[in-house]
Amino acid sequence: MSELSTEQWTIIRDYLARRAGLYLDDSRMRQGRMFVQERYRQLQISPAAYTLRIQDPTNASEVQWLAERLANHETQFFRNPAHFRALREHIFPELQRVRSPLRPLRCWSAGCSTGEEPYSMAMVALQQWGNPPSRPISIWATDLSHVPLERAIAGEYRGRSLANVQSDYKQWFEQQPNGSLRVSEAVRSLVQFEQHNLLDALPHWAYQLDVVFCQNVTIYFQLETCRQLIERIYAAMAVGGYLLLGFSESLWGIFDRFETVEVAGAFIYRKGDGQPKPRPTVERPITKPLDKPVEPTPVRPRPSTRPSVSVDVPKVPDVASLLAEARTLRAQGQQRRGLSLLATIAPNQRQPAILALAAQLHADLGQNDQAAAEARRALELDVLQDAAYVVLGMIELNQGAWDKAINYLERASYLVPESPTIAFHLAESYRHQGRETAALRYYQHALRKLAQHSSSTVIDGIAVGWLRSACERWIGSLEASQGTF
């Protein structure tokens, strides 16, 4: 059976992005092609026939099959503790004050995976209003994939997914004979699960939403797909409702109609009343003299018709200082602290450089999917983010995709020609590809740049002493193989 061609793969990849929102960039191409190959061999059809099959609008189950195997379903209870603290300490109490006690609070976990997130929301609600809750609340949970939804409905968990469960929430689990913990009936009764593709029109119940969790979902979307989804969510939310996204899902440069507020140490989005905000006065030079001074017209303050909202005033951090501190933490091997520090930056200040640094930190921790998604998002916002190219290049290098690695690393080298680490990684890629002359040139370039650093220095997470030794070893080997003296 013939192999899947690059053209066929591109058609399948682009169709998957249009129908499921799951865009597989070069860093995930190998995985995607592997699953496609597995599928058409299982069906005993040719790659060309499978390419036609997946584009057949009457055969949506094929897109579903592939998307389920490529999506990352790993999650945890209370995955982002700051967000759930904000839900408990501010959002639910605020909604209790401003919403009619007879009106059900309407919550949605969009991209709920195996159910930990909506169940966490339900536990916070039960802690807030008792069991059964003293006020009506509805929590919907949706995901593209059927398999994780089946696990969510079963409600049984063990291991890593329970790592963030604090002692006061353990009452909502029941020990099972097989050693797992099952979410109690009181919690399960608050959550309704449903299969839903976020690229489709929103479900019939998605209106006047008060709380929407959509975390670590849109990082795999292209920018325009993300913008369209956020517009639909915004339209479906009630005024005063809250949207909670993952760290890398800042709306910076994508959508500006939400208000950004800081609550209980977390930055979240709030749907305001839509009233235009006053623009700052800009002084313009006078190009001709005025006949007489113009008296300013007094502006009477307009009474506010919007309910009082008790939110903390966002602090404006010095983003440059925080970036520098996070880079220092990375150099010290404290990647998790670096990520926590970046999370303190307000979403509307999370520039592409911040996403690129977050990608580096995740890559250092071996979290390649998250790293690649953040690097790609940084480049969608700014094509000059050299660190993002390095992350994607290193992922490809580690997967043995030398051509792809060289493509990314050459772009990074063009932007930062003085970097010894980029030169070293390029040399490694060229050597594995069999291009010895190019590899030798870049090893020599890296060694020259390393001369200005002491051996104990760490650059981009790599000790200079080790880098220098590796360059010298490969230079000697390549010169000997080429007969260079």
What is the end-to-end distance? 49 Å
Low-confidence spans: 276-314
Shape descriptor: globular
**Count of β-strands:** 12
Q: Please write the CATH class name of one domain.
A: Alpha Beta
Q: Radius of gyration, rounded?
A: 26 Å
> What structural class do the secondary elements suggest?
alpha/beta
Helical proportion, percent range: 40-55%
CATH homologous superfamily descriptor of one domain: Vaccinia Virus protein VP39
With helices defined by DSSP (H or I, 4 residues minimum), what is the helix count? 18
- Label the CATH architecture of one domain: 3-Layer(aba) Sandwich
Could you give the order of the helices and strands? HHHHHEHEHEEEHEEHEEEHHHHHHHHEEH
What is the fold-level CATH name, i.e. the topology of one domain?
A: Rossmann fold
Q: Strand fraction band?
A: 5-15%
What is the average per-residue confidence, as pLDDT, rounded to a whole number? 83
Largest sheet: 7 strands, mixed
Strand order of the largest sheet: 6-2-1-7-8-10-9
